[in-house]
Amino acid sequence: MSEGIRARDPRSSSVNSLPLILDVEDFKGDFSFDALFGNLVNDLLPSFLEEEADSGDGHGNIAGVDGLANGHLRGQSDASRLSQMSTAPSFPEVDGLLSLFKDACKELIDLRKQVDGRLNTLKKEVSNQDAKHRKTLTEIEKGVDGLFESFARLDGRISSVGQTAAKIGDHLQSADAQRETASQTIELIKYLMEFNGSPGDLMELSALFSDDSRVAEAASIAQKLRSFAEEDIGRQGVATAAGNAAAGRGLEVAVANLQDYCNELENRLLSRFDAASQRRDLSTMSECAKILSQFNRGTSAMQHYVATRPMFIDVEVMNSDIRLVLGDHGSQPSPSNVARGLSSLYKEITDTVRKEAATITAVFPAPNEVMAILVQRVLEQRVTGILDKILVKPSLMSPPPVQEGGLLLYLRMLAVAYERTQELAKDLRAVGCGDLDVEDLTESLFSSHKEEYPEHEQASLKQLYQAKMDELRAESQQGSESSGTIGRSKGASISSSQQQISVTVATEFVRWNEEAITRCTLFSSQPATLAANVKAIFTCLLDQVSVYITEGLERARDGLNEAAALRERFVLGTSVSRRVAAAAASAAEAAAAAGESSFKSFMVAVQRCGSSVAIVQQYFANSISRLLLPVDGAHAASCEEMSTALSKAEAAAYKGLQQCIDTVTAEVDRLLSSEQKPTDYKSPDDGIAPDHRPTNACTRVVAYLSRVLESAFTALEGLNKQAFLTELGNRFEKLLLTHWQKFTFNPSGGLRLKRDIQEYVDFVKTFGAPSVDEKFELLGILANVFIVAPESLSTLFEGSPSIRKDVQRFIQLREDYKSAKLATRLSSLWPSLS
């Protein structure tokens, strides 16, 4: 802007006033008013600033001198300076700046007018150009619309021409195809006429049908001719049946000759295929297979290839299979050996099929169909051949003896063969078998065996059970014979102990059943079938365990019955000789020993019975229940059957436990009768201190009960134990009451009785039966009737009305009952005493 603005010197403004020169270009772009103003005044203001600086320096020096001389700034020099400044102008360039600003303002006004003029001119030019432009755009739009219409017409014509061309092309292609078909038809008719000559005459055929290098073409043409001839014969047959008498001679000769030629050609190709197969010439085999696929879709070639495999025609292969699985001839094969043999054989078969699959894939155009034929032939011939040797179905009417494996051997062989063959089917499926349902085919190999499997399984379990029972009876008989002849009293316990229930035997029953259930799960694929078979097999176990433990309990009861018979045999009257009484006492001791032995034997039987039942119940919960739950009602039905089957054993156990209680109470009664002395409870008044020990009878009874019930505490548990001990305790309490009524008591005898009762109380607390404890506690209270003075009897049992009847009976046992006239004294209180 400094170059575009030229101004006169302000100091010469009064002499010469030149106009400012401002350029419009200075206001374009990044315009700054400060820059414009600066460029206007820079020529005037620097000279003013220099003069002000010079005058300022002089005044300062004078002031300083005055200040230094006078010590202050005030003086005459200050007044004179002020007067001078008031007369001189304070801004000498102001006139020049005003003139400059006026000139600049005029120049700016002129420039604005110039710019406004130019803007008006430009607006007019822009308006004219815009009008021309709009006119041009309108004309262009009209031209574009015309072009679009032209293009649309052109596109329509092109489309029409294209459709016409496509139709022409289709017609040309159809015509060419018809021409080609006509040409081929002419050629086929010519060949057909050759075959329709003399019957069986194939010597006059074209060279095509005898040229080995054109076998594929000859086969294709022969098949076409044969198809055409057969269709023609079919049409002639329909026309003749409709009454068309004008039907001429057909193509029967051609069909016959074509059939002969196709057979001859097929045989020739099969021979070439066999020769190439022996040389392992896969390319020639593939070429022959491709040509043979035109004959009946190549079925003959595929079947011929499979049939000629060595594993189907070599007898040594079959013999080797049998030796591998069954071992040497004459030896009894075991399931484990057969399993290993089948695994090895099936692995060999899988490897062979895998090798054949590689060849089949390289040779045949439809390898999946060939693999299906091959795998089917393997299963139906090779696998079936070995299965027929392994699985010889036994007769249920006359099954093989257990010593030779019995029915169980057949079932184990069946399970092993089925499982291994299923694995083979999976391996063959992995190798490839086309559309063949190899699993279903494998199932069909075992269909006859699976149909009768449930009957064989149940018969096998029954056979095993019968064999086990025979074995146990033989062992028992052998043990009886080895023990020699023993007295009758001891023989009962010995015979019963040798036929005692064994948990090991029951566990063996469960193991048989578990093995059978495993096979059942293997052979039964449907839940309903599985549930039905499992239920039937588990029912066999229930029957076996029920019969076994029931018979065991009954045998143990026989010992109790024999001991009871011994006790009854040696019950004597009162008037017998001393010698007879001694012999009877000895026999009674023997009967007691037999009773105690039979009691312990029965408790052992009950314990083992409970363990056996628990094993069966645990087996049902762990293994059987989950197999029955998917079928509605199956689980509940099995539970009901289990309850019914075990109820027989429960009934036998209940009867035996009642007999055990009879045995114990009988022995306790014998001990009390033989050991209890009248002086025990009516000691003489001889001044000797009373005996505070329990009586000998009490000691013997408690010792006997402790010894004999030890087995009961071990054998019984839960509610069964509580019920048994409660019943025994109640019977024992009644027995004691009956026994004590045979004696007369004085006060010291009452104390002795109280000591016995305390001994009994301490013992029965081990029963854990609250009702029994309460009754024996009342016996201790009842013994007080013999201890207190007669005048205190009326108030003794006021708080225990439940034992009043026993009290009334026991009062009569007091030694002083008559002397103290207790009946009269208590008649008013207890009328029943009178």
UniProtKB/TrEMBL annotation:
> What domain of life is recorded for the organism?
Eukaryota
Biological process terms from the Gene Ontology for this record are: exocytosis
UniProt-recorded name of the protein: Exocyst complex component SEC10a
What residue spans carry the region label Disordered?
Answer: 472-493
Q: Which InterPro entries match?
A: Sec10-like (IPR009976), Sec10_HB (IPR048627), Sec10_N (IPR048625)
- In this chain the Exocyst complex component Sec10 N-terminal domain maps to 95-211
Please state which protein family the record places this protein in.
Belongs to the SEC10 family.
Domain Exocyst complex component Sec10-like alpha-helical bundle, first and last residues per copy = 217-824
Organism, per UniProt? Cardamine amara subsp. amara
Q: What is the lineage of its organism?
A: Eukaryota, Viridiplantae, Streptophyta, Embryophyta, Tracheophyta
Which of UniProt's keywords are assigned here? Coiled coil, Exocytosis, Transport
Ranges annotated as biased composition (Polar residues): 475-486
